[in-house]
Amino acid sequence: MPTRYRLACTVAVLAMPFVLAAQPAADQFSIHGSLNSGYGRSSALPVIGIPREGTADYRIATLQFRYKVDENDQFVMQLLNRRVGTSPLRTAIGDLTTQWAYWQHDAGAFSVKVGRAPLPRGLLNEVRYIGTLLPFFRVPYEFTYDAFDAVDGVVASYRAQLSQDWRFEAHSFLGGSENRNVRSEATGLSVRVSRANQMRGGQLYLSGPFGLKVGAFGDQYQRIDETTQQKGSRTHYALSGEIDRKYVTVRSEMMRETGENSKSSLRNTYVNVIGKLTDHWRVALEHSIGEQGVFPTASPSVTVTSVKSTGASINYLITANTVLKFEHHWRRGYQFDAFVPPTRTQSGATVVLPNAYTNYFIGSVAFSF
Amino acid sequence: MSFKTLIRGIVTLVCVLVLPPRMAGAQAVKIVVNAATETGDLSTAVLTRIFLKQDKKFASGAAVFPIDQSKASATRAAFSKDFLGRSAAAVDQYWVQQIFSGRDTPPPAKSTDDEVVDFVRRTPGAIGYVSASAEIPSGVKTVTLK
Fold first, then answer.
1. Has the ipTM of the complex gone over 0.85?
2. Cis before residue A300, ω within 30 degrees of 0?
3. How many CB atoms lie within 10 A of CB A317?
4. Residue of chain B nearest A73, judged by CA positions
5. Where on the phi/psi map is residue B139: left (φ > 0), alpha (ψ -120 to 50), or beta?
6. pLDDT tens string A215-246
7. pTM summary value
8. Are A66 and B105 inside 8 Å of each other by CB?
C-alpha cells in the first residue's frame, strides 16, 4: 500500500481509542450477525467447493460490531468466517478474517469511511455474504469471484434526493484490495492470490420510481501476484440495473476486466428474476455467462465461454431474517475445481474443446439479526 | 334515518372504498413529534424517507430523530404498511441490507406507545408513531400529513 494510504489508515486507527473513551456506552453499541450454511452435492465435476461426494463444510458467517460515537461518527468491525468445501481456494482463505474495520464520519449528504471498508461495486457486492438478502446461496460467482469484497483505504460518498422519486448516490474510493481466484488456463488450474494496489475508482447509483435502480462502476489498480510477483495494471467497469416491485424483482449486471495485455480479459454477465409469491415463498431463476481470455502457447490468445450457468431456487422465509433455500444449478464450461482443458493446439492452430457439464444442488439456511 | 344522515353515510362509504389503502389505514396510527419541532409541510413521501433514514433533516433544516416501535408491535405493522408502503418484513429486509452494506442501522425501537411519546417529548427533533387511541400529552403534538 502506498505511504499516503497507509498513513491515513494509521491515523484513523490511532485516533480511535481517544475518541471512543470520551463517550458514554449507553445503547450506542450494536451487534449484528448472519449465517449462511448449506449442504451441496455435484453430479460429476467438483465446482465452487462442492464435490461429487457432497459437503456440509459450506458456510459463511459474519459478526458485526458497531459503536456510534455520536450522531456523525461510528466505528464498525465485521468478522467473517468462511468454509468453502473442497474448493482449491480453501488454502487461501482464512477461517476467520476481518472483513471490515472502519471509522465512518457523516457530514450531511457526505460521508467518509476510513480503514477496511465495504467496496461499493454493483448491486450486491457489500452484502454478498448475507444469505437472507440473496435468492441463492451466493451472488453469481462469475460476477464477484473471491475478490474485492472490501477496500483498504478511503471511501467517500455523497447522496442526494433529486426529486420525490429520484435519488442519486456517488461513491469514490482509494486504496487497495485482495483477489483470490481459481483460474482455468490453457494447461491447468491456478490459484491466484494477489494484491490490488493504488486502486482508485467509483460507483454511481440512480434510483427512481417503480423500484428502478441503475448503477455504473469503474476502477483501475496495480496488481501484484503474491506467488510470482508479476505486476500489471488492471481495469474494471460494470453496469447494473434492477427493478424491484411488490411481486417480482429483476436484476442484471455485467462486468468487464481488462489487463496489462490483450490476453488478460474477462467478461461476465448475469440475470436474476425473483418471484415473490407470498410473504413466505419466493422462487428465483438465474443465468450467468462468463468469458475469459486463455493463454495457449500458440498466439494469439483465445477468448472462450468459460461458464454458462443456469440456476433455479425456492426460498421459504420463516421470517424476514430466517430463510430456507433449495437451489439447483446446471453448469457448462471450463471453470470447475478440477482441470478441464479449454483449448488444444492442433496442427499449429488453437482449437476450442467441447464444454464440460455438471450440475449441483445446495440446500441451505440463512439467518441474520 | 334522515336524508342528511343517509347522504353522509354514503359519502363516508364511498370515501372508504375509493381511498387508497395507505390513506384508509392511516387512521390506525398517529404521527407524533416534539412540540417544539417545525415540521413544515410533511408529506407521506418525506415521512417514508425519514423513517428509512434517507432524510436526516426536516424541511426547516432541523435534525430529525425517528423512533420506531418493536418488531412485534401491531402499530408498527400498520405503520409500515400504511405509511412506508411495504410490509413489516420488507422493512426488516431493507434494514438488513443497510446494516450489512455498512450504510446505517435502523432507528431505535420502543416497546409501547407511552415509551414513544416519552422519548418524543424529551427529544427535540424526534418523530414517532403511536396507535390512534394513545393519549398525547403536552410537549408532544400530532402531525397531519399533506
1. no
2. yes
3. 20
4. B104
5. left
6. 999 999 998 877 777 788 999 999 999 999 98
7. 0.83
8. yes
